[in-house]
Amino acid sequence: MSSEDAALEALAALGDPVRRGLYRHVTGTPGEVGRDAAAEAVGVSRSLAAFHLDKLVEAGLLEVYFRRLTGRSGPGSGRPSKLYRRAEGERTVSVPPRSYDTVSRLLAEVVEQAGLDGELQAAARAAGKAEGGTCDGEGDPVEVLRSRGYEPFWDGGTLRLNNCPFHALADQFPALVCGMNLAGIEGLLAGLPGGRDWNAAMDPLPHGCCVALEAAEGKGLAPEATPGGAPEAMPEAKPEV
Fold it and tell me: How far is it, in rounded angstroms, from Cα 99 to Cα 92?
């Protein structure tokens, strides 16, 4: 099977609306998600959620982890729970075929070898500021970042980004791409009417974006923000088979 056919089959697995909702919930939640939490999030039974989650694993879109959620070990601690999280790798399809990733890698390599990091960051900051200026209303940074695929979530008073939109390039050119990303977000905040009381800094997640944000006290904090992350990020405590 060609890589294009494999990508098409994986993406076809998201055609079912329940499956699509489960995928979005799992990938939008930091850490791993259990069957009970996923089922509750999309409003289906646990058995139906389990069926569709395992189909997403078969398609290579999710990965399975097993971990005891009781905090105990040894006899009587119960079976490890089956948990899900976003699979590594990407699935992209272009009709007709295009190779933008090849061009982006070549351009990044040239910029890095030429030592043009500063120029790239200046361009990213200017582009971010211009983009922020086009947003209507208050331009809430949380929603703007969400619309751009960063998957923001609250970790206490820090807004973390669960997804890196430049993941493949950041893996190959971490200093170059992460510096560009930070500059772009700084520019975006400067351009947003609702972003001027925010600060962005490098604070990478193990599986996520290298940038984290903080708002000035009383500015931009979601009512549900609590220490340790958003409530939906916490796996359920009931052991699963």
Answer: 11
From the list 50, 52, 46, the residue with the least C-alpha distance to 17 is 52
**Encoding tokens for residue 179?**
């510096």
> What are 203's two structure tokens?
């604070």
- Count other Cβ atoms within 10 Å, centred on residue 92: 12
23 by Cβ neighbours in 10 Å (0-12 / 13-18 / 19+) ranks as buried
Q: Of all residues in the chain, what percent are helix, strand and coil, respectively (each to 5)?
A: 45, 15, 40
Q: Which residue type occupies 13? A: A
Rounded CA-CA distance 53/68 in Å is 19
DSSP state of 202: E
pLDDT at 70: 62
Whole-angstrom Cα distance, residue 111 to residue 218?
40
Q: Taking each helix axis as running N to C, give the angle between helix 46-58 and helix 35-42, from 0 to 180 degrees, rounded to the nearest 10.
A: 110
At 193, the pLDDT band (50, 70, 90 cuts) reads confident
Is residue 62 a contact partner of residue 194, using CB atoms and an 8 Å limit? no
H helices then E strands: how many in the chain? Answer: 9, 7
Residue 214: strand pairing partners: 158, 199
Instruction: Give per-residue pLDDT as tens, 135-169.
Output: 766 678 999 999 999 999 999 999 999 999 999 99
